[in-house]
């Protein structure tokens, strides 16, 4: 029953309805589910793990990120206790396949959330023996291809957290570039079906994969963008590499705003989902630090406003922060009015083609020196009062930080 009610709660969260009532979508179902949930018994079961994952997922949107984290942690521990991470050849194939799917789903959800909070990623790949590919087709509509791609991306995310965001590891630009290369080859080797379209009617799975990929590019390079912006990084050293990496970060931010915009056009944008708010905010912060690609900012801001008007408090909070950024940037930038210039697609080329090209360009930018490009994030500190500069850099550092670095 707890499982049943949490399914209803998530269904309502994603209905994309604007509620006249002030109630958070799905909260009554959620309350019922957690009331019914058995938290005391010693015996882990498949359904308990599924329930924990969904309860954690719903809580992501409730500003309860730590509770979500503990629920995912609990699901992982129960899975380990049941041996879901191990190949169990004695079990019937159907059962093995179900266990396999649940294990990797658990792995992905836990890794993504753990990385978001900047916590240590726990389970090592070397301890896992269960397959990443389908063992048997169950003909139930489950998409094993997308799960496999998500697993690969989660593994790279774990590696990035263990190098770039580990407080005891000294990171170099080479580490950032090597992480980018891994992400690039992941993108290149995706199965053809996942490379043919992003915006699919009634199915966000591929779009979500690309949103996640671009978000990881952003969190990988963001420390570099920030340190160049703040003036800690000497851009004369390794300027080609730095330029490359920053271009990719800005490209990923643009691609994500464009994907979200297209999802909204086809009615698959979730005003109450956690990640859409997050992707948008991370992308916008990158674009604020860059002056080359400001065209997308007004459109991205419109999307955030849409969510905050629907009552999403994460979006409301972000709106307040973005306004503060506006006023800080106004102090030293004579900004030319930029118009909302989200992707204007012509009828001749489908949005899918444009989005896919945009994403593959992120990873294939040619090595070229482009000295002017770096000027956009040259330190502005001398142009403003120390107070404005301090507020600006503190905000950029803390608002979208991953981890405690
Ligand atoms: C759900 O539970 C929370 C906390 O127990 C409570 O504050 C809230 O009013 C409940 N909402 C509904 C609609 O039952
Ligand atoms: C979200 O949670 C944090 C930490 O518990 C709190 O500081 C913040 O005010 C909350 N935001 C909203 C909109 O409730
Ligand atoms: C700059 O590039 C050189 C050669 O590729 C490398 O050894 C060095 O670590 C790089 N510097 C930084 C700060 O990453
Ligand atoms: C800087 O931040 C402080 C504390 O939040 C605030 O009181 C002050 O008004 C801010 N200054 C500017 C110029 O925004």
UniProtKB/TrEMBL annotation:
CDD domains: fungal_TF_MHR. InterPro entries: Fungal_SecMet_Regulators, XnlR_reg_dom. Residues 1-20 form the signal peptide. Residues 68-141 form the Xylanolytic transcriptional activator regulatory domain. The keyword Signal applies. The keyword Zinc applies. GO terms for molecular function: DNA binding; zinc ion binding. Keywords: Nucleus, Signal, Transcription, Transcription regulation, Zinc. This is Xylanolytic transcriptional activator regulatory domain-containing protein. GO terms for biological process: DNA-templated transcription.
């Amino acid at each position: 029953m707890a499982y049943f009610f949490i399914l209803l709660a998530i269904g309502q969260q994603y209905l994309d309805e604007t509620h006249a009532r002030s109630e958070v979508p799905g909260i009554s179902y959620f309350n019922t589910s957690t009331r019914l949930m058995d938290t005391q018994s010693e015996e882990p079961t498949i359904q308990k793990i599924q329930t924990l994952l969904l309860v954690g997922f719903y809580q992501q949107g409730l500003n309860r990120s730590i509770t979500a984290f503990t629920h995912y942690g609990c699901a992982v521990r129960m899975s380990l206790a049941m041996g879901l991470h191990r190949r169990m050849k004695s079990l019937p194939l159907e059962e093995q396949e179900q266990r396999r799917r649940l294990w990797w789903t658990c792995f992905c959800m836990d890794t993504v959330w753990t990385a978001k909070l900047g916590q240590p990623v726990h389970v090592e790949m070397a301890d896992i023996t269960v397959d990443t590919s389908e063992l048997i087709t169950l003909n139930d509509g489950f998409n094993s291809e997308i799960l496999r791609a998500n697993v690969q991306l989660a593994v790279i995310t774990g590696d990035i957290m263990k190098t770039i965001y580990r407080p005891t590891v000294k990171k170099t630009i080479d580490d950032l570039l090597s992480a980018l290369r891994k992400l690039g080859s992941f993108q290149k080797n995706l199965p053809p079906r996942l490379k043919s379209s992003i915006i699919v009617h009634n199915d966000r799975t591929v779009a979500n994969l690309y949103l996640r990929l671009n978000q990881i590019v952003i969190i990988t390079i963001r420390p570099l963008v920030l340190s160049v912006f703040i003036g800690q990084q000497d851009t004369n050293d390794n300027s080609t590499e730095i330029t490359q990496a920053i271009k990719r970060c800005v490209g990923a931010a643009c691609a994500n705003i464009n994907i979200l915009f297209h999802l909204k056009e086809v009615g698959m944008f979730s005003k109450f989902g956690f990640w859409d708010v997050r992707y948008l905010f991370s992308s916008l912060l990158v674009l604020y630090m860059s002056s080359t690609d400001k065209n997308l900012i007004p459109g991205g801001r419109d999307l955030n406003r849409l969510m905050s008007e629907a009552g999403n408090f994460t979006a409301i909070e972000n709106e307040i922060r973005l306004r503060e950024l506006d006023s800080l940037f106004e102090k030293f930038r004579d900004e030319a009015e930029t118009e909302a210039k989200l992707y204007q697609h012509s009828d001749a080329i489908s949005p899918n083609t444009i989005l896919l090209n945009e994403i593959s360009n992120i990873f294939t930018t040619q090595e070229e020196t482009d000295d002017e490009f770096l000027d956009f994030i040259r330190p502005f500190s001398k142009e403003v009062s120390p107070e404005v500069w301090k507020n600006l850099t503190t905000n950029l550092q803390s608002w979208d930080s991953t981890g405690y670095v």
